[in-house]
Write a structure and sequence with these properties.
The structure holds 2 protein chains of 2 kinds. Chain A is α+β, with helices and mostly antiparallel strands. Chain A has a domain at 25-180: Immunoglobulin-like. In chain A, 34% of the residues lie in helices and 22% in strands. Chain A has 7 helices and 8 strands. Chain A has helices at 2-21, 77-80, 165-174, 181-203, 211-223, 227-236, 250-258, and strands at residues 34-36, 39-47, 54-62, 70-75, 91-93, 100-109, 123-130, 136-144. The radius of gyration of chain A is 40 Å and the shape is elongated. Chain B is α+β, with helices and mostly antiparallel strands. Chain B folds into 2 domains: 14-192, no CATH class; 196-277, Tumour Suppressor Smad4. In chain B, 51% of the residues lie in helices and 16% in strands. Chain B has helices spanning 14-34, 47-73, 78-100, 109-132, 140-161, 167-192, and strands spanning 196-200, 215-218, 223-226, 229-234, 237-241, 247-249, 252-254, 258-259, 264-268, 271-277. Chain B is elongated, with a radius of gyration of 21 Å. The chains are: A alpha+beta, B alpha+beta.
Chain lengths: 261, 281
């Protein structure tokens, strides 16, 4: 009971505490803060359209020096395999004197053919901020991993102006097809009905007997004595002799039972 | 008295396949609930919590339906079984998922896929063991078998979830496969590791349905009433005690206790029952 209580308390504190604490809306599910040489990069997952279909990784940078004029992402090849992500979407110009920048890249784009799986694999790579000469002002390894069991959840909505034009175009095309969820729901419903019908009929078949077996069973059942017949037999049967006393010899007991004493 | 040598059952108990289907439906139900979540950022602080919430939902749904089906098959009270399924399944999966969170993510994508499979595996394994504890499972060998089947089923579900492309389809597929594995693992070994299973047969020319199935494992030292006859398991021996008015065993009248053979068919009153011998305890 004590262990159960501890588990319950731990469960409640896990889920109820964040809800009670009412964190600000900007709390991110997957913020990865990286601080190198005074620069900070943060990542969070956001949704890119109102249909909740596309998910993007938002990367925001803050740096103290104002000498950077360009920013470039260098991610692993996994991200670049996506048909929606090109090298041009991974780089962004930073206005002179700016001390912060953000970029949005898609990581989860299910309704688009060919379907991508990058939202379900861990992304690793390097982010770098370069100056006019191309030298790295800030460079750090970065990684993002999706949930292991849950579906990646949204943590906010991307600012439309922050989405690169090419990406916005791709997403507007992607938003056209309806969600596949009703279709999957129908598929699951049909397969559930099929399983409920199939399993009892073909896996639980009771091996129907032949007519001969049934006839044999019926004959045996008819041959059984009914309760009434048993009572009648008990009444007509010879009465049982009283039990033999320990000091009686067998012969005496037989004589006593036969009434010949 | 040693049990006579004879072929042990090679078929699955109906309850095991029934629990598999119930788990499958529970997984689909969990997916239907979780697919409605669009933005939980105000309540869930990290993906770790999202994983825990998903594990809890999945195993609670699966546990509720699996123990509900099991209770119906055994003609036991339904509501306590369902509540126990929610509690045991949820707590078991939460423990498994929380343990999995201690695993490192792995540097490469391949390693992450392995870690994800392990996470699903631990969740399903612990949920199966927790659900099998309903009605006090005390045998260690059966618990290990439950855990192994749950771990394998969870790993398969994790692999399905990690398949490339069609992500929106792989997730419900993984949920249903994981649910089916939890259902099968939590009920199957407790049935086929019992000395015998008695299945009440439907009337002639009729089939079982999910609602009409009536099957019970006969544990060692336990007796089961079939109409007015009693099927008892004494150590490795399964013996039928007919009523004074007799019963029919394999088509022959029976008036005295007899040791049951494989797939013996007992007719007592209007009830027909088939006893399948499984491994001795």
């Amino acid at each position: 009971m004590r262990a159960l209580r501890q588990v319950l308390i731990a469960t409640l504190s896990t889920f109820a505490a964040p809800a009670l604490a009412q964190p600000p809306r900007t709390a991110n599910a997957d913020v990865k803060g990286i601080a190198t040489a005074g620069a900070v990069a943060q990542f969070r997952l956001v949704r890119c359209n109102a249909h909740h279909d596309e998910m993007c990784l938002s990367a925001a940078f803050t740096w103290p020096a104002a000498n950077a004029v360009a920013e470039t992402f260098h991610w692993s090849a996994e991200l670049l395999r996506s048909p929606m992500v090109g090298p041009e979407q991974l780089a962004m110009a930073v206005p002179p004197g700016a001390r912060e920048a953000s970029v949005i890249i898609p990581v989860f784009a299910t309704p688009v053919w060919p379907f991508t799986s990058i939202g379900r694999v861990a992304l690793t790579g390097t982010i770098a901020l370069r100056d006019r000469a191309g030298a790295a002002v800030f460079s750090a390894p970065a990684s993002w991993r999706p949930p292991r069991i849950a579906w990646p959840l949204f943590t906010g909505v991307a600012n439309e102006r922050a989405i690169p034009a090419a990406l916005r175009e791709a997403l507007s095309i992607a938003a056209e097809p309806p969600s596949a969820r009703p279709l999957i729901c129908l598929l699951l419903l049909l397969s559930g009905i099929m399983l409920i019908g199939f399993v009892p009929r073909y896996l639980w078949h009771s091996g129907h007997e032949s007519d001969e077996d049934i006839a044999r069973q019926l004959a045996a059942a008819r041959a059984l004595l009914t309760a009434h017949e048993l009572d009648r037999l008990r009444d007509t049967a010879p009465r049982e002799a009283p039990p033999r006393a320990p000091d009686e010899s067998t012969a005496k007991a037989i004589e006593k039972r036969d009434g010949r004493q | 008295m040693p049990r006579p040598d004879g072929p042990h059952a090679r078929t699955l108990p109906a309850t095991a396949s029934g629990a598999l289907v119930a788990g499958w439906i529970g997984g689909a139900l969990a997916w239907a609930i979780a697919s409605r979540w669009s933005d939980l950022s105000s309540r869930i602080a990290s993906y770790a919590r999202a994983d825990q919430l998903m594990s809890l939902t999945l195993s609670a749904c699966v546990g509720a339906l699996v123990l509900l089906a099991r209770a119906r098959f055994r003609r036991e009270a339904l509501v306590p079984a369902m509540c126990a399924g929610i509690l045991l399944g949820g707590v078991g999966a939460l423990v498994g998922c929380t343990l999995a969170l201690f695993l490192p993510d792995g540097g490469t994508s391949r390693m992450f896929t392995l870690v994800r499979m392990l996470s699903w595996s631990l969740m399903a394994g612990f949920a199966s063991v927790a659900l099998a504890q309903y009605k006090r499972l005390r045998r260690v060998d059966v618990s290990i078998e439950v855990l192994l089947i749950g771990l394998c089923g969870g790993a398969i579900a994790g692999a399905i979830y990690s398949l490339p492309g069609l992500g929106e389809l792989w997730w419900p597929a993984a949920c249903t496969v994981c649910g089916a594995a939890i259902g099968f693992a939590s009920v199957g070994p407790t049935m086929w590791r019992s000395p015998a299973v008695a299945l009440i047969l439907p009337p002639h020319e009729q089939h079982h349905t999910f609602w009409s199935l009536h099957e019970r494992a006969i544990e060692s030292g336990m007796a089961m009433q079939v109409a007015n006859a009693t099927v008892m398991c004494d150590g490795p021996n399964v013996v039928v005690h007919p009523p004074p008015s007799g019963a029919v065993l394999d088509g022959h009248p029976l008036y005295r206790p007899v040791q049951i053979t494989q797939n013996a068919e007992l007719v007592a009153g209007r009830v027909r029952c088939r006893v399948t011998l499984f491994q001795s305890s």
